Description:
- By secondary structure, this protein is mainly α.
- 75% of the residues lie in helices and 4% in strands.
- The chain folds into two domains: 6-70, Arc Repressor Mutant, subunit A (Orthogonal Bundle); 76-218, Four Helix Bundle (Hemerythrin (Met), subunit A) (Up-down Bundle).
- The protein has a three-stranded antiparallel sheet with strand order 1-3-2.
- InterPro entries: GntR_C, TF_FadR/GntR_C, Tscrpt_reg_HTH_GntR, WH-like_DNA-bd_sf, WH_DNA-bd_sf.
Amino acid sequence: MLNFKNEDLATHAYQKVREAILQGEIAPGSPLFEVHLASRMGMSRTPVREALKVLARDGFVQVVPARGYIVPHRSMDDLRDLFDLRESLEGTAARCAAQRATDAELAELEALCVRYENEQDWHRWVQIGTDFHNLLVAAARNQRLANILDSLNGQIVHSRRSVLRADAQRRDAATREHRAILDAVKARNAADAEARAREHVRSSYEATLFSYQSRPAAIG
């Protein structure tokens, strides 16, 4: 690690801190200190400082004047804003995928959808769903869109997982929604693919909002 360039270290720090936030190792409300993070990752404070700036830009941490950085709590307004963006962007991704996906990608999406429908283990089921969405975005052939969605979905992953764990009906609905998206993409029906993807995100938001109102401490 000592042989890495400074920008490589900053990228490494960004990835490690983001992963810790998404895995719940750093809880919402927790302060982030450069010196502690640098010591934890075995590097100087400079790449950590750069990583925190980018994490703040991407919405994973929040700048607190005169205090540094904290992992933010998500308010209802935050969730609404995030899901509004996600609906638009994932709709666009599905529309583009219907126009641009290769036959090999369609076959892989079908295989993932079948696994998603049959998987019983919750953790594996969530990962398969993530893989499905990632491949759909990749098939859209728009790297800027992929980069924005990666950051956006990272910010709401905790809320989405808490809902899926708590609500078996939402899990069943999500499975049906994935199948509807895939059917539209396979039919090369761009308008329907976009509509189905938007419906899926709206349903996810409604379930998340219900969970948030019922159990506000469950979402970070």
